[in-house]
Model the fold of this input.
Amino acid sequence: MDTASAARVDWRSLWASGDLARFCFISLGILLHATNETMVATVMPAMVGDLSGVQLVGWSLAIYELGSICAGAAAGRLLSFVSLRATMISAALLYSAGALVCAAAPTMPVFLAGRLLEGFGGGGLVALAFVAVERLFDRRIWPQLFAIISAVWGVAAFSGPLIGAVLAEAFSWRVAFGVFTGGGLTMALATLVFLRGPRATERRPGGAAPFPFLPLMVLAGSVMLIAVAGVEIRAGRSTLLLLLGLAGLAAFFALDARRPRSRLFPSRLFDWRTQVGSGMTIVLAFSVATCSFAVYGPLILTNLHGISVLTTGYIIAAESIAWSILSIAVANAPPRRERLIIIGGMSMVAAGIAGFAYAVPAGSIPLILACAVLQGGGFGIAWPFVTRIIVGAAPETERTVAASAVPTMQRIGYAVGAALCGIIANAGGFSAGVNDAASASVGYWLFVAFIPLAILGVAAAVRNSAPPTSAPAA
Done:
């Protein structure tokens, strides 16, 4: 069998072997996390009317992301002490408990405590899904499984707000969180039943390495500072908090690199002489650079051009659908096409970011839709292969850590990107209120400002898809 044939997998055979069915249950954790994350926007008005505390609304997403980042960073390390199945069950139960606290919350602070628990559980489930690919499945089918992960994200992005709106309108916002309480319990039961075998039930001892409390505390503090910078935007205050947060992130990565026995990220994290380093640069750069439309696109289009929120929702859904469809479409591509796919996909994302800078101020729905499809489709094409390269190129002893590091780096990128978007929007005129002039200015600079970062991401993609050069030992 030649290389190209070996790289192709028959989906029917994959299902018959049981691998695909087993992975579908693992992916349920990603669906729970991502759907809950996107649902909150549509239940928030009803929830605030019930609990009050509108000044704390911004913390709902920020604290959820904080829990997700910390859990994702810790997930790979925890597997040195606990089996994959036990860790995944614990994360699902923690997620379910958090959703239950949210559903029964009498006040906004209690609700935020539930969101933190949900974030810990959901972030752990996402990271563990990536680890499960590395632990439980043959490397030959990693692109297919990572493509399924991309499809699940697309389904969640499309369905989350709709689920929240329907449940809140037909029943109550508390029922929406009650549904996710049951979802977490279902995930725990499915994991208990379907994750069997020594790879899932036996831990991989990593020696008596200390648990990295200090790096995680620094990470939590850094993300909190960045989140605060994006809650109530004031140029000087937000810039200071953002800089402190970025400095804290740099300190976190430095602390992590100095603790090889308890490392949360792979060694030489941003070293372009390795495919791990250039790959993680791609993840961070594009996670930061692509937040703009999701955060501010609907607000700008509605106020500047009178485009309905429903229409903007369909545009965002189109981006998610493009991601899912193209991810599945290229999953069986032969290895010789990998370089072209990665560079082409990341170039599509960069073109989408640049195109938004013209299309959003102009208010052209066809052009905006085209940019959204470029951005989502580019991610769908390249992401499974970038992820496979990162995990596959990591040293054998760091592959579990590398697998869990990918979604963690995404969450860090989203937190940084959202804070930057807020500062740019404020500087563009939103600090004085939403009006046509401010919307036009923000709609331009919100995308132009991230073009250099997108170019950096494309350069990293070119480097990542080339054969790695030698690098000094970590």
